[in-house]
Amino acid sequence: MAKRDALRELQSRLAQRLSAVRTEAPSASWLAIECAGVGLLLPLAGAGEIFPVGTIAPVPHTRPWFVGVANLRGGLHGVVDFAAFLGLRPTQAAAEGVREQARLLALNPSVGSHVALLFERLAGLRTAAQLQREPDDELSRPSFAGPRWRDDRQRVWQEIDPAALVQHEQFLGIAR
Questions:
Q1: Where in the numbering of this chain does the CheW-like domain appear (predicted)?
Q2: Which residues have a Cβ under 8 Å from the Cβ of 44 and sit 6 or more positions away?
């Protein structure tokens, strides 16, 4: 009898939690990364798994920012030096000893591409409650650049849309 009552109570609490989640407004959340000192935000839905920088096989006749391919959990991913792609610094070849904090972010397969972004530092997670949207400055930005956000330390973060990034003409043009 006690087990039955405990089970009913558990089911009741779970139903209440599910109901609360359904009625709450969805909150934006991002993975914060740094590329050449610039703060970037990638929506968690588009971000996949983070990996240490391991063996990256170079691919001949590709753009300098296309570092090569890497085997990440049994899947072959193209690796893009994201800071170099964005023009924030010259490319950093995989053989040149990448800094210890550097990581690979494999984008979520739902964005339609098996690509990993090489970035310098993971800066954690951010939510909409931690950030304030910056007014539009009307500067020309690529189609994958979303709004800019400011945190409580007055640091500006640029939102990146992974689905738009993998469809961008320059991003798709890896061949020289």
A1: 27-171
A2: 29, 30, 31, 125
- For 28, 154, 172, 173, the CA distances from 116, given in Å and listed in that order, are 22, 29, 13, 16
CATH fold label, 26-172: OB fold (Dihydrolipoamide Acetyltransferase, E2P) (2.40.50)
Residue with the bigger pLDDT between 57 and 19: it is 57
- The secondary structure element, H or E, covering residue 42 is strand 38-43
What 3-state class would DSSP assign to 30?
A: strand
Identify the CA nearest to 85 among candidates 44, 118, 58, 60.
118
Q: In residues, how long is the chain?
A: 176
Q: Determine what percent of the chain is predicted with pLDDT higher than 70.
A: 81
